[in-house]
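Researcher: Please predict.
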Amino acid sequence: MAFLGVDWVPAIAVAHFAAAAAHLAFQAVVHVVVYPGLADQAATDPAHAGELHARYTERMARVVPVVYGVLVVTAATALAVTPGLVTAIGAGLVALVLVVTGVLAVPLHRRLSETGDQGATAAGLRRLARVDRLRVVLGVALVIQSVVAFASPRA
């Protein structure tokens, strides 16, 4: 797609790869560093676990829309500019990430922010870790998809 004399397809493919890589890096840090830290804090100070989780959730609410927003914009742009199976798979993966986050992770975060029950907190954090594992796997799949799309930008 030429606009102003420039073929934007490679740039869009690079932007989508960058967004997918940033999303995977973000998700991996949350999974490997943040959630285990929340579990440690909850075990150390169970009386304040809900309050700590609420503060974490409030801070993350500033970052998540940026990471996910860029991912949505780049996937949608790639699909619009280079429609095909590879870009449709990318858009589908982004949709899955959003559904898993909105339907599974967000309600868990809400419950964890409200609970004062140590058992409920530990169980909720384990469920959240399982949900997050799925988001990491989806993130890996998105990076792979974006590499394939870049290698064949007209796909």
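Model: Residues 85 and 129 are 31 Å apart (CA to CA).
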